[in-house]
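To: structure desk
From: M.T.
Subject: fold request, one chain
Message: Could you run this one when you get a chance? Sequence is below, nothing fancy, just the single chain.
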Amino acid sequence: MIRAVKICFAKYFIFSGRARRAEHWYFVLFYHLASIPPRAIDRYLTENGAFIPIFELIVGLCIIVPLLAVTWRRMHDIGRPGWQGILHWFAVVPMLSAAYALDGSPPAFKDAYGDPLAYGMLAIFVGLFLLVMWWLVKPTQQGPNAYGEEPPEW
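Reply: Done. Structure tokens follow.
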């Protein structure tokens, strides 16, 4: 995991090239583990009157660019365009709207759109998420591809 973290921070703004599956998933694991302490601190602070989860926000902002970059490179590793690795993120706003609509939204939203639209938006998000996850767990494309040489073995 330490190797993946070093590589990802060394390639902070590098969206070209390829990243092996292990590099991507170890960095994702690091991101989730690194967000636990700031999340705990922020929970304590919000219980005591603070309103903004500032520590989690800081960690998230520091890690989001290399996380995007390694996901982009991971998609290149299987021969797909990098933007497809963040495809499910475009469905986050509709998904959050759907969750809000299904869980006590203002009547105006339900009257205008109804529950079927909310379930549809939720289904689109889940579908895109599962598609991207399937791509991200695929093995490395052997040999060179349009995005560069095969990355070295771990």
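Reply (cont.): The helical segments are 2-10, 21-34, 36-47, 54-77, 92-102, 107-112, 114-137. Let me know if you need anything else for the meeting.
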